[in-house]
Amino acid sequence: MKNPWIVIIAILPQFPEMYRAAAELGLNVLSITDEVFDVPAKIAPQKIVYTRNWTAANIKKIVKRQLGKTKPLAYFTVREEELIAISKLNHEIKNKNINPHRIVEMCRDKHAVRQALKNTPFTIDTALADLKKPKDPFPGFKKIVKPMSDASGIGVIQVEKDDNFAQAVKKSYAAYNKNMKQKDYCSAATKQKSARYILVEKFIEGQKYIAELFVHKGKARCLSVVSRGDMTPPYFKETYNYAPAKLPAKTYGDIAKKACAAAKALGITHGGVHMETAYDAAGKFTVIEVNLRTGGSGWLHKLVHGSTGIDYIKAILAQIAGKNPLPYLRENKKDISLLALIPADGKGRAAKLPDHTKMPAKPADYRLKFKLGDFCLPYPQTGDYRGYYIFNVKGRGPKAYAKIDKLIAQAAKHLRYKYLIK
Q1: Is the pTM here over 0.85, yes or no?
Q2: What is d(CA 131, CA 128) in angstroms, rounded to the nearest whole number?
Q3: Which class in CATH covers the domain with range 207-414?
Q4: Residues 112, 126 contacting (CB under 8 angstroms)
Q5: What is the distance between the alpha carbons of residues 354 and 388, in angstroms, rounded to a whole number?
Q6: CATH 3.40.50.20, the chain: domain bounds
Q7: pLDDT tens for residues 291-333?
Q8: How many CA atoms lie within 13 A of 238 on its CB side?
Q9: Dihedral sign, CA of 99, 72, 84, 383?
């Protein structure tokens, strides 16, 4: 097919690299989005349609209206909320360069992921608690309660004392129920489980890292192990990421190797994988969460590309199009990239973008997603952020990482992370 069509769903203004990669690969793009934004004319989609209805049925109607009898090569998104809807549509068109629908459904169900990894050393002690009569499955232990399927850390709460367990379950489900209402957010089976149970896990000791993977023909390779900074408990939400993580080579290699082994155990066959992990002082590696996409709705592409030169998103699109993705996975630099996130302020307004001229390095990219003063619920009522900074620092020596530490300290000073639920 000459210049085949790819349908790109809900790609945010922060990620024009998606359209650049599609243009360079000779793909025609139908963009279905809910945000108005401009991209350079050279990479602009051939067609743009605006909607806020992300069900598979509505997307299918839009495609039929726009493309007529032309069958798209694939549907694609980097936003986890739409992964199930997109996978349903890809299953219908039978593109063999995409993960099977059952694998996508499994990875959107945290309990199913735990079950798939139960015979590996990478899993967590997990149980289901009945929402009507929540009974603590791990008395005497710190634990995490979370919805079966969530996005952006919504509803993930740490429980320090057994007496707080029932209240944490109630808050977790309330956050999930308020935010996760769209029809195709998860499979019907997961939705039924989520209406009856909450997931409970023993608290995992150890530092949290992200493994950003690419899988081709069933073989996983780790593109980067990424550091993450979180809010203080009881809530979990990233405040910054930087790639690559500052780790001894042996530790870094062990995390990368075990993340790839976990992806194989889950049966993942294609594409980008965003794997949240923990690694303790004894070398125990644990999988916390798996998403079949580039992390952060495109932010992790920026960190991987900025630190290594790997064209992560182009490799994914090339694979979908049946082309060889491997040339786009070659490293051509060894730098560090930092993402600092801008939250809503305590009153739910978009926070003011700090003066970047006072930062110790010039940002490679920065923007607000909303106008200053726009109302938006702060975390944990919603997992969204208002904007971001990205910094690229040359080299990976002690001075380069010292500069990253200084940038993180400056970001924390300017960007106050607040949440309202106590």
Answers
A1: yes
A2: 9
A3: alpha beta
A4: no
A5: 10
A6: 5-95
A7: 999 887 788 999 999 999 999 999 999 999 999 999 999 999 9
A8: 23
A9: positive
